[in-house]
């Protein structure tokens, strides 16, 4: 999980990323404590906003979060988190 702490822009993107937001996400533990360094994460469904708690995936799973089944990314947002019990 992670918290969206910012947004980044790219003046030029590959076609697979056109219309896709790119966010800076701080990874967090289940108690919402920061873990590790922030990373840039693609949001292929444009579901997140700054301050949201999200689930993100990395590696091959990140590329498969796109409708096309592929994009040149290392991390993608796949869900919003409503609450942690």
UniProtKB/TrEMBL annotation:
One of its GO terms (cellular component) is bacterial microcompartment. The keyword tRNA processing does not apply. It holds the Pfam family EutN_CcmL. Keywords: Bacterial microcompartment. It is found in: Bacterial microcompartment. InterPro entries: EutN_CcmL, EutN_CcmL_sf. It comes from the Bacteria. Gene3D superfamilies: EutN/Ccml. Its main location: other. SUPFAM superfamilies: EutN/CcmL-like. This is Ethanolamine utilization protein EutN/carboxysome structural protein Ccml. It comes from Melioribacter roseus (strain DSM 23840 / JCM 17771 / VKM B-2668 / P3M-2).
